[in-house]
Design brief:
mainly alpha, 2 domains, 18 helices, two-stranded antiparallel sheet
Length: 388
């Protein structure tokens, strides 16, 4: 009975996969017929090689009589989970390639060619990968191979990867010749088939923006805001401005790690996964740096990554400010200023206003991090104003 049910499920999977690819093929043929003629076409032999490679991959994927001997070996266990995963990937991949084709419009060509009045498309799916049609087809082929589960299907995917990698390399040469430095900059920013380069660039930009928030100019804007709201006196504001360059220089090491935690907070600000990934990354950052400094660096720096810092890093809402704790011992005035600085930038209110609406434990941790005004004034230059 169970064997019969398995056969029915397998037949249904084959039918659904076949229907997906047939619908995609019908659409592709229609748009290919309507496509204009390019001003520069791919050589016939090169085009023939590509067609033969893709046809071979499809035969290995979907032509069951070819699965004889080792080609019929099951490399993925049969089961509804793998069937659902495979069909889902196939649906997503084919949909992604159709979206890319629709977005490309009249710029599309089935062969490697430049279209008349062609322009470089960098939006839509082309903002994530340079060749989203090929990426979508490879995702769909991979999903199909997972659902089929045979060695022949896996070999078919490998052949398809080679075929489209070969074709995209030819296309890149044509595009560089047509668009020059503009396309080279696009290649530097966006990956060919995977969005990893874009992710790397986004993370780099995030770190750059977080470092920019720690510049003296940005901090002086916060001093002006604190002064305007009468949270500090004019004399206190003058002292902060005078001490700022020296404090930043003396606390450069701590500030770098503070900036890293800030970047982690920005990266995971819109995390929709129900896991505390930002908190985990902050804690691992502190633990990793402590281990590194103890092994390869100095014990003085290792003490900066203390257990207290780990504890604060694990607290929601204020964990990104864990390195304010060691900073308060080096420069209480800078720690106090940075606490308000990021509270204004991220929450639009002073740190005390921000804490007022949070749970009691968060309020206690926050006030533990924030230096008192007595600490700040005691650390400032004790000389009388007339002697400065």
């Amino acid at each position: 009975m169970f064997d019969g049910v398995g056969v029915i499920i397998k037949m249904s999977i084959d039918w659904v996969l076949g229907l997906l690819w047939i619908c995609w093929a019908v659409y592709w043929i229609i748009v290919a017929i309507r496509s204009g003629i390019g001003k520069r076409a791919e050589p016939l032999l090169s085009r023939l090689i590509h067609v033969l490679l893709v046809a071979s991959s499809f035969f290995l994927l979907f032509f069951e009589p070819i699965r004889i001997g080792p080609l019929d070996l099951s490399i993925i266990p049969e089961g509804s989970a793998f069937y659902v995963l495979g069909i889902s990937l196939a649906t997503v991949g084919l949909s992604f390639s159709i979206w890319a084709r629709l977005h490309l419009g009249k710029n599309w060509s089935g062969a490697v060619a430049l279209k008349n009045e062609q322009h470089l498309v960098q939006s839509g799916p082309y903002a994530f990968v340079r060749h989203p049609i090929y990426a979508g087809l490879l995702i769909a082929a991979t999903g199909s191979a997972i659902a089929i589960g045979k060695l022949a299907a896996a070999i078919g995917v490998l052949i398809m990867v080679f075929a489209y990698w070969r074709k995209l390399r030819l296309e890149e040469g044509v595009m560089i010749e047509a668009f020059g430095e503009t396309y080279e900059a696009y290649c530097h920013r966006v990956g060919a088939l995977l969005p990893l380069r874009g992710i790397k660039t986004s993370i780099h930009d995030t770190f750059a923006r977080s470092r920019a928030l720690l510049t003296p100019t940005e901090l002086e804007r916060t001093i002006d805001q604190l002064q305007a709201e009468e949270l500090i006196s004019d004399d206190h504001a003058l002292d902060l401005r005078r001490e700022l360059p020296h404090a930043i220089s003396e606390s450069a090491y701590v500030l770098r790690h503070f900036g890293a935690h800030l970047s982690i907070g920005v990266i995971f600000a819109f995390d929709v996964i129900p896991l505390p990934l930002g908190t985990l990354c902050r804690v691992l950052w502190v633990v990793g740096n402590q281990a590194y400094e103890r092994t390869f660096g100095s014990r003085e720096r290792a003490r900066i990554h203390s257990f207290k810092v780990i504890l604060v890093a694990a607290v929601p809402w204020i964990g990104y400010g864990a390195y304010l704790l060691p900073l308060r011992y080096q420069s209480p005035e800078l720690a106090w200023l940075l606490t308000h600085h990021f509270s204004y930038r991220f929450y639009g209110a002073s740190f005390e206003e921000f804490l007022s609406g949070k749970p009691g434990v968060v309020q206690r941790f926050g006030r533990w991090i924030l230096p008192t005004m007595d600490e700040v004034t005691a650390h400032q230059d004790p000389r009388p104003p007339g002697s400065r």
